[in-house]
Amino acid sequence: MEKICVIGLGYIGLPTAIVFALKGKLQVVGVDTNPQVIELLHQGKIHIKEPGLQDACTKVLQAGSLSVSRRPVPADAFVIAVPTPLNNETKQANLSYVAKATESLLSVLKKGDLVVLESTVPPGTVAEVMLPILQRSGLDPYEDLWVVHSPERVIPGNILYELEHNSRIVGGIDKESALRGKELYSSFVKGDILVTDAKTAELTKLMENTFRDVNIALANELALICSELGVDAWEVRRLANYHPRVNFLSPGPGVGGHCIAIDPWFVIEGSPALARLIRTARMINGEMPERVCHYVDTLMPKVGKGNVAVLGVAYKPDVDDVRESPALRIIEMLSSRGYSVRAYDPYVKDPFEAQVGTLEEALTDMDLAIVVTDHTEFQSLTAEYIKSLACHPVILDTRHMLDAEQFRRAGIAVYTLGNGRQLQDKQIAYPEVAAGLEHI
Ligand code: SAJ
Q1: Ordered domains of the chain (ranges, CATH)
Q2: Is the pLDDT of residue 419 over 60?
Q3: pTM confidence score
C-alpha cells in the first residue's frame, strides 16, 4: 500500500489525512509540530469542530491506517497543508511555514517521491520557494521528484463531503508531475481532477476566492449607493437576480474567514500594478465594519453612549471560526467609541472582547442590537422576547435575516444595511474614503 505523509494537521490537513486513509485506503502519517495536536490525536481526539470528522478519525486511527508524528517519515508522497497567513502590515504572504515544512522533508526524500503543496500561496511559490529548498536534498526536482500544487476548495462545515466530491486542480512543475499528482488524488476524489501547471493552479485557487470577494464588494457598494439614493438595496438585488445571468451576492458587515479576505492580497502581491479592481474591492469590503459603526452612531441617541448588543462573532453562520471576522473589528470600534458592548455567539467558545454567555445577557437593557453573523439560531428571535428584555430596542440587521415587518408591527424598528428608504430622515456620516489602502 502506498504510504503518504500529510504535513500540517489544521482545518485542511487533518481532514485530508483522514480522507486519504479512510477513502483512499492509503497508509497515512499525519505530521504536525504542535505537541497539543499530536497529544490529542494520540488520545484519539481531534482539535477541529467539523461534522463527521471525529468519527472518521476514530475509524482510521483504530484501523491503523492513520498514525501521527512530530516530523516526516520516509514515504511515497508528501502533502504540505500548512498555514500561509497574511502579514497585515505588508499585506504579503508569510511563507515561512511552507519553507519550514519543505525543509523538514530534506532528510527523508528519495528519488521518485511526490511532493504536493496544498496551502494557498501567491503565484510562483512552488517554483521560487519550494524548488530551491528541495534541491538542497541533492535530488533534482525535475529529474528525481514529482512536484505539484493542488489547492483545496472545501467549505468549512461540509469538508468531508466536498473533499471527496469537489473537482480538484493538480498543477505540476511538469506534465509528468501533474499526472503523478492526479494518480494520488484519484485514490479518493470522485470529482473531476483537472491537470495544469503549478503557477496556473496557484493563481486559479486565488482567483476563485477573489472572484467572490469582488462580487461581495459589488453588493456592499450597492448597499452604500442605495443608502445615499434612498433605495432599498435588497429590493434591487431581488429584482436584478431575476435576470438569467445576474447573481448579486449579499451586502454584509464585512468579509471574514481565512480565505476570501486573504487570497486577493496574494494576487495583488503577484501583480501589484495591475490588480486594481481587486485592491479596490478589498478596500470596500475592509471598510464595511467601520461603516456599520457609523450606522450605529446614526441610530443611537448619543454617539458613544448606551448599550449595544452584538449578535454573532463567527465570520459566517453556524461555525465557530472567528478568523478575520468583521464582528471583532465592530466590537473593538464600538467599545473605543465608548458604547457598552455585550457580544454573544452560540458557537464561539474561545474568549473574545465583550463576550457574554447568553443571548439574554446581551439583549438585557440594550439600546441597539446588531445582527452581525446570520446564525440560524437568530432567525427565531421574536419582538416579544426582545421587548421583555429591553424598553426601547432598535435592531441593525446587517444580514437582512429578520422579519422586519413582524418587529415593526410590535413597535421595534429594524434597520438593514443598504435600505436607503429607512434612512430618509437620517444622514449617515460615512467616513471619507481614505486615499491609500494602508488603513485596512
Ligand atoms: N459574505 C458576504 N456576502 C456574501 C457571501 C459571503 O458578506 O454574499 C461574507 C461572509 O459573511 C463571510 C465571508 O464573506 O464573512 C466569506 O464567506 P464564504 O461564504 O465565502 O465562505 P468561506 O470563506 O468559508 O469559503 C470560501 C469558498 N470559496 C468560494 O466560495 C469561491 C470555499 O469554496 C473555499 O474553499 C474557501 O473560501 C477557501 O478555503 O478557500
Answers
A1: 3-198 (3.40.50.720), 285-439 (3.40.50.720)
A2: yes
A3: 0.93
